[in-house]
Amino acid sequence: MIKKIRVSNFRSVVEATLMFTYDEGKAPNGYEESPKLAFVEDAASGCRCVPIMAYYGANASGKTNLLRAVVNLLDVASGTRCNDVRTIFKPNLISTVGPETEFEIEYFAGSASFRYLVTYSAEGISYEQLFRNGQELFVAEKGHLAIGSALKLTEAYTQQTFQERLDGECTDGQGHVIRSFLSLVGLHMGGASEDIRVAHAEFANRVAVYGFDRPAILPQAVHNLCEAAKISQEEALDRIVDLVRRLDNDLASVEVLELEDPKNAPNYDHLLVLGVSPE
């Protein structure tokens, strides 16, 4: 569950922070009697996050670019869609904040609270850091990796082992880091650290952005809504169609893709946007 996302120097966004918590620091009055979910609580910090959030603004104010920033953050952190962060570097061209884009996200998974920070530019990733419950798991600065005290090293996975894998699999061979260390461990070294694996899984499997070049697969969307709202497939489909029409779009066509096993569809905690083109 996401608590906060901070974006610096990305497209039209110079600096912005999206908070997923209540401004007043508590849930609405009378929430205990309400049949609706009032908040999702981080067991580690006690932070209460809103179950759904919408943001609004004038045309050309940067709303879409905030969502694009979330997409880029997911791509950098998960490593499932991007093998070279330099190809998705999109800075603010008139900003004076510096030549690098920086993302910071705070979220919780299970009983643990995580904070992830990554800075990158046209040359690659210059800084990456991950915390669990306030304790540092790792920090990588310009290709030099330091393992934090919260990450337990073993004979199979030593400081040298991690550094060699970063050098061999996260760089372009010329000293530029082009893939995140988080994605390396999450995708290819899952046995090295359960904490890093869990932290990575949130980006790879638990957060989805629908829209742009990421279409919503209808059977998967229906399945996710059925599971979350405990309703039938027919009602879930009706709700999705109604939402699309309320957004002043209509469905020109629907492509139905059969899922071999819908139960194995990703169980997303966050569906940040359902983007539908009238075309």
Order of secondary-structure elements: EEEEHEEEEEHHHEHHE
Total number of helices = 6
- What is the number of strand segments? 11
N→C terminal distance = 33 Å
How many strands, what sense, and barrel or not for the largest sheet?
Answer: 7 strands, antiparallel
Percent of residues in beta strands: 15-25%
Report helical residue fraction. 25-40%
Mean pLDDT over all positions: 84
Molecular shape: globular
Q: Which runs of at least 5 residues are low in confidence (pLDDT < 50)?
A: 268-279
Class from secondary-structure proportions: alpha+beta
Strand order of the largest sheet: 2-1-5-6-7-8-9
Radius of gyration: 20 Å
Q: Please, could you describe this protein's structure?
A:
- The chain is of the alpha+beta class and 279 residues long.
- Helix content is 26%, strand content 23%.
- It has six helices and eleven strands.
- The chain has helices spanning 63-78, 159-169, 181-188, 194-205, 218-229, 233-246, and strands at residues 2-10, 13-19, 40-41, 48-49, 101-109, 112-121, 124-132, 135-141, 144-147, 207-208, 270-271.
- The strands form three sheets. A seven-stranded antiparallel sheet has the order 2-1-5-6-7-8-9. A two-stranded antiparallel sheet has the order 3-4. A two-stranded parallel sheet has the order 10-11.
- A hairpin with a 6-residue loop joins strand 3 (40-41) and strand 4.
- Helix 1 (63-78) crosses helix 4 (194-205), helix 3 (181-188) packs across helix 4 (194-205) and helix 5 (218-229) packs across helix 6.
- The longest helix has 16 residues, at 63-78.
- It is globular, with a radius of gyration of 20 Å.
- The two termini are 33 Å apart.
